[in-house]
TrEMBL record:
GO terms for molecular function: deacetylase activity. InterPro entries: Macro_dom, Macro_dom-like. SMART domains: A1pp (SM00506). This is O-acetyl-ADP-ribose deacetylase. Residues 1-172 form the Macro domain. SUPFAM superfamilies: Macro domain-like (SSF52949). It holds the Pfam family Macro.
Length: 173
């Protein structure tokens, strides 16, 4: 695997110049707070109109829409698990989010994609544990199907940024 494909940055996902950004949505897909609110604000009301046609999304699944006013052409909406202490299938569900987003992007021929730290805001998934799952899924997908030019982890705060860097440095020596 070419390690240059994976990037970790501190920033706002709505500003990323990639083909697709991932939204950490809720199961209604009708908008919310955090990164979901930021993406809807930046994309404009047409995004909500398209989301209304999708009939929601189950935890661990992913659905794609256009990006409208965003620099990104596409938004891949996924629904992360709510953290209930770790014994409610949270790890497996979070892994499925990353895998299903990558799968959907690959099917569409998307080569550049940016992820937020899914579930670690309002859904309270522990940051370091989430970073490990995210990195594992991205690395194993790339090992299997090296179809991406760039996969960006967009970290909104210092904790997420340092955890992600720590995990990547451990995985790629
Ligand atoms: P969830 O409900 O899945 O936990 P949140 O949006 O509450 O989703 O939080 C997920 C992560 O997204 C958190 O690390 C939060 O700080 C981050 N975040 C919030 N706004 C943005 C943004 N504009 N760009 C990137 N990440 C963001």
């Amino acid at each position: 695997m070419d390690k240059q494909v994976i990037r970790i940055i501190k920033g706002d996902i709505t500003e990323q110049e990639v083909e697709a950004i991932v939204n950490a949505a809720n199961s209604s897909l009708l908008g919310g707070g955090g990164v979901d609110g930021a993406i809807h604000n930046a994309a404009g009301t047409k995004l909500l109109e398209e989301c209304r046609t999708l009939n929601g999304c189950a935890t661990g699944e992913a659905k794609i829409t256009q990006g409208y006013d965003l620099p990104a052409k596409w938004v891949i909406h996924t629904v992360g698990p709510v953290w209930h202490g770790g014994n409610s299938d949270e790890d497996r569900m979070l892994a499925r989010c990353y895998r299903n987003c990558l799968k959907l992007a690959a099917e569409r021929g998307i080569k550049t994609i940016a992820f937020p730290s899914i579930s670690t805001g309002a859904y309270h998934f522990p940051i370091q544990r989430a970073a490990e799952i995210a990195m594992n899924e991205v690395i194993s997908f790339l090992n299997d199907r090296p179809v991406f030019d760039r996969i960006v982890f967009v970290c909104f705060n210092d904790d997420t940024f340092s955890s992600s860097n720590r995990v990547l440095n451990e995985r790629i020596k």
